Amino acid sequence: MTNLVEIRDLKIEAKSDAGRIIEIIRGVSFDIAEGEIVALIGESGSGKTTIALSLMGYARSGCRISGGSVTLAGKDMVTLSERARAKVRGTEVSYVPQSAAAAFNPAQTIMEQVIEITRIHDLMPPAQAEARAVDLFKALSLPNAETIGSRYPHQVSGGQLQRLSAAMALIADPKLVIFDEPTTALDVTTQIEVLRAFKSVMKKSAIAGIYVSHDLAVVAQIADRIVVLKGGEIQEIGTTEQILKAPAHAYTRELLAAFEPKHYARPLAETVASPKPPLLEVLDITAGYGPIQVDGLPLMKALKSVSFRLEAGRNLGVIGESGCGKSTLARVIAGILPQAKGDIIFDGRQMAQTAAARQKEELRKLQMVFQFADTALNPSKSIGDILGRPLSFYHGMNARAREARIGQLLDMVRLPSTVRHRRAAELSGGQKQRVNLARALAADPKLILCDEITSALDTVVAAAILDLLKELQRELGLSYMFISHDLSTVRAICDEVIVMYQGEKVEDMPTGLDQGPQHPYSKLLFSSVPKLDPGWLDGLEQDPELVRAFAKR
Amino acid sequence: MVRSFFSLRAAGYRFNLVGLIGFCLVAGWAIVALSAPLIIPYPIGEIVDYDYFGPISGQFWLGSDYLGRDILSRILMGARYTVGISLLAVMISCSVGVTLGMTAAVIGGWLDTLLSRFLDALNSIPSKLFGLVVVAGIGSSIPVLVCTLAVIYTPGAYRFARALSVNINTMDFVTVSRARGEGTFFLIRSEILPNIIGPVLADLGLRFVFIVLLLSGLSFLGLGVQPPNADWGALVRENIGGLPFGAPAVMFPSIAIASLTIGVNLLIDNLPQKIRDRSQ
Amino acid sequence: MNRHVLNLVLARLMIAVITLLIVSFTVFAATVLLPGDVVEVLLGQAATPEAVAGLRAAMHLDDPAIWRFIQWLGGIFTGDFGISYANNMPVADLIGPRLANSLKLAGITTLVSVPVALTLGITAAMWRGSWFDRSVTILSIGIVSVPEFMVATSAVLVFAVYLKWLPALSFANEIHTFGQLLRVYAMPVITLSFVISAQMIRMTRAAVIDTLNTPYVEMALLKGASRKRLVLKHALPNALGPIVNAVALSLSYLLGGVIIVETIFNYPGVAKLMVDAVSTRDLPLIQTCAMLFCIVYLFLITTADIIAILSNPRLR
Question: Which of C4, C216, C229 is best to mutate for the A interface (most A CBs within 10 A)?
Fold first, then answer.
């Protein structure tokens, strides 16, 4: 078997902010055979994209290939001149970016950019290239294949752009295509179609591929072999089958374990019989953005008559894809966005529309934690100051009491006490999210609104945060309203679930996810979540009617 | 100063040579402005040279002016006017502009629209022209100059601070504070200001340069600092008659201005940076 | 052009009109409402109270300020700019020929500096970090941070005093040959070009570098595109808005520069007229000149914004 790609002892250096040189890829070696698809799996900072880009002889600014060789079809991309590299790019190896929306030039039509490679390398007459592009559009099951090329990038959807960027990569029949997290930014119902299109095109043309991803389940559908990376080093290489079924390395096992978080077991055996007054009751909420219309409702309605109730000590999951209004719901409850219509009753009291109009005590009992840990912490304050403010604001604590309480709070979220003197930028993503939780806990709340709090984290870190949430609940008797697009995290922590679609609550699942979805959209959504089974995508059958009705493809 | 340089480095700051040169120029002129009466070699009003537009000599280091006065002494004293007026004006314009900018960003709504529209309109009067019009209307005196320069550069400071604050204002940590129930003053002082102070100080430096240039320009036109006082722009104007002979009296006040403005530019482009190494 | 774009353009024009109103009020207020009485200026300190009162009445100075403002504004927009205090001539007659001179100076400067500055700015961005880029950047920072009169006096020292190539002063009224034209305009044009080019180079360079850092330019690089193609095909079309803005803003620096340059070279343009009017406190003349400058400035900025709106591909 001849190897198309041979990477030997690849080393890449980067310059840190302080001007220090650090090695971010530390001697990586692996091969790719003709027609084989190899996945690079790893968490953020594992160097997977950096390795993939080195196959094009390219290092992002601040990085430099410092050693080893990357041989592609007999040419060492490391030692090639820039001019010679440019010749190879697009013709022999091509690239499908993570965000096609950003990678398309807004000033040119799609067709111009799809066939640009043939122009740059003078491969074929434009008319022939365009005909080829249309064939590729059809192969990637893009709608209106004949005309979609004449549009501008902002006129087509994200899922379509992602497939168009694959057409752009395939136009010149390369030997190797690099897929750089090509479905990460997409909703699951969209992701399926894109994955299917990629898979069928790659199979048909027998092109080799590198598939960079953090998502094992996605990779399982498309890759022949998997390379597991951590901190710029290879942990394990194996066939997809072997990695999933019989992982050899401890880190791989950790990744697999984190993929399916432990199922939520209720801490207390509850007697559901006695109906308690609800902790939170949301009645017929309508809210949105834009100018107020004649009927008193905003132009863009993000929430349409949503109602639900949550009992004390229980956890509610809110599930939906981007744009379904789940974050808006949290913002309305927290008083950040005033609702146009409807009532919020929390702990037996009617809540005012805005936080400014609510009483301190009402605000205290209801806290919110945000998705992006880095933007939720003021970068110019120390962690101690950040945690101290709610203590003095809600509880009027003096400096001494604050210091003691900050120590307890950090202990609760399993952070060392010394963290209080540091700033957010000096912490890792998981640590920052713990500080965010500690800030919410500082208020002694009854309910915490968690808006996608694990979505921006690596799977292993996210699993640890979920465990922490459960522990805190046991100790403090909190309730969570847990907003997420990810079924497995919701399954891990929630007693009951509501499913949202385009601003409406489409399904209420009072006993959690196990009861199985009834509403057609929920069915589609649930069936679209990739499973750790290489045969899942091929075996999946979805009702085309449903897909047409609900998926934003 | 050398000591502070090392202590900065010890505290984890990186300082480079160009920034150091800038700092020396700025600090040097600040010292001159403070101590000018003590260090001038000749009284500024006294005619000390028999020759007018005298050349550089051991006796008159930078030559003499159109009346035979010592140029070095006049430049050293001129620093008081150029640096003093500009510094005062930039302090006023930046404190007013930044306060308004942060308030507009945090409160938003009609206040923001109204302020932005009005200050943008003020900004669309060319600065030199604004100065000319005010001087024509009320005459030129040092308080008028300070106020006029401050008014001219307030819209720019406002715009800059507002743009930064609007960005910070959309951050989740500000939303967290709002949802906690914090008031406008806390938001501005504790959440916004600490996060824009760095760029605002750099902008203050740039605005200081603009003000020095405008003040010099106005004085050069005879509309700035009035005789017998003279800032650097006025010194160039007084001695412009020496230009055809290439007299040092014309060039050195200009060089003084350039050394100050370039010094500030070098300093703010190469400010000591706190080294943040997240690789560890 | 679709409706959305049309709406944006109309909104921009509305803003320009509102701005013009605020600007004209500011100019009026600064010259007339602030302390410092015109009548005392005209009659001198020794005037009798009766004479002052009479003149005040004759000049309608006792009318409410807002009424005077409306009358003045109405005059400006109907071409009645008032009578100059200094020499009793209609302001329009004074400004007319001077305006032609100033426009000539501005036009020649624009023709010289825009192509040079854009080329330098774009090429500096293309070869960022090279010695060429560095020297262009240092030179432009140097020129931006010194006063215009220093650029002018240095130009005189170099070209007229040491090299003796050019006359130190301009006289726009005795031109008969092309050579004379060149010699007369050379010094003011060189000075002004330096001043506005420095701005334009810096802003153009920054705009091009911004677009060169975008993911779509990286994508084109990974398609094997040459540097020339990256800049011409991908960066420039998207940097058009910011570049036009840079040109407009830099040309507005012309307005400030021209005040210094016309004074220093004794060039008979509007700016020189205005500076002279300030020393005689000839208010109608000052107001008109100021409005003229503000209108030119607003015109430049508004045009740039509208071009930016029209050139935004996302609005197509």
Answer: C216
Between CA A379 and CA A374 the distance in angstroms is 8
Give chain A's domains with CATH numbers.
3-103+175-259 (3.40.50.300), 268-380+435-516 (3.40.50.300)
Alpha carbon distances (Å) from C220 to A90, A330, B13, C240: 9, 41, 38, 19
The CA distance from C268 to A115, in Å, is 58
Q: Which residues contact C115 (CB under 8 A, 6 or more apart)?
A: none
Inter-residue contact B78 to B29 (CB < 8 Å): no
User: In this structure, which topology does domain B2-278 adopt according to CATH?
Assistant: MetI-like fold (1.10.3720)
Give the domain extent around C295.
3-35+81-310
Cα distances (angstroms) measured from residue C248 to each of C142, C211, C241: 21, 19, 11
- Record: contact C219-A121, CB cut-off 8 A: no
Looking at chain C, which subunits does it touch, using at least 3 CB pairs closer than 8 Å as the criterion?
A, B
Could you say which DSSP state residue A7 is in? E
How big is chain C, counted in residues? 316
**Lookup: tokens for B223:** 């509309």
What's the CA gap between A250 and A229, in Å, rounded? 12
The pLDDT of residue C35: 53
- Residue C162 forms part of a structural domain: yes
Q: Pick the residue from chain B with its C-alpha nearest to C142.
A: B262
Read off φ and ψ for residue A194, nearest 5 degrees: -65, -45
What are chain B's partners, defined as 3 or more CB pairs within 8 angstroms? A, C
Q: What is the pLDDT of residue C36?
A: 52
Q: Is C75 domain-assigned?
A: no
Give the Cα separation of A111 and A535 in Å (integer).
34
Residue-range domain boundaries for chain B: 2-278
Q: Touching check for C224 and chain A: CB below 8 Å? A: yes
**C228 and A CB contact within 8 Å:** no
In a domain, C65, yes or no: no
Task: Kindly tell me if the per-residue pLDDT of A226 is higher than 90.
Answer: yes
Q: Name the pTM for this structure.
A: 0.85
**CB neighbours (10 Å) of residue A517?**
19
Core vs surface per residue A292-307: b (16+ CB within 10 A) or e? eeeeebbeebbbbebe
Q: Which whole-number Å values give the CA distances from A179 to A88, A168, A202, A218, in the listed order? A: 17, 12, 11, 12
Please state the rounded mean pLDDT for residues C270-275.
88
Alpha-carbon distance of A513 to A517, in angstroms, equals 8
Smallest CA–CA distance, residue A280 to chain B, in Å, is 17
Domain count, chain C: 1
Residue found under tokens 């014309």: B250
**Prior bond of B228 cis (ω within 30°):** yes
Indicate yes or no: CB of C283 within 8 angstroms of CB of B137.
Answer: yes
Instruction: Look at C223 and A117 and tell me if their CB atoms are within 8 Å.
Output: yes
Helix (DSSP H) and strand (DSSP E) numbers for chain A: 21, 20
Helix residue spans in A334-458 (DSSP H): 360-365, 383-395, 399-412, 429-442
Put simply, the chain A residues between 133 and 152 with a CB less than 8 A from any chain C CB are 152
Closest chain B C-alpha to A303 CA, distance in angstroms: 20
* Joined tokens for residue C241: 């808005």
The Cα–Cα gap between A487 and A504 comes to 18
Q: Does C219 lie at the interface with A, CB-CB under 8 angstroms?
A: yes
ipTM above 0.85, yes or no: no
> Would you call A377 an interface residue with chain B, using a CB distance cutoff of 8 Å?
yes
Q: What is the pLDDT of residue B9?
A: 53
- Within 8 A by CB and 6+ apart from A448, the residues are A367, A368, A369, A437, A440, A478, A479, A480, A481
* Contacts of residue C7, Cβ cutoff 8 Å, sequence gap at least 6: none
Eight-state DSSP code of residue A419 = G
pLDDT at B278: 40
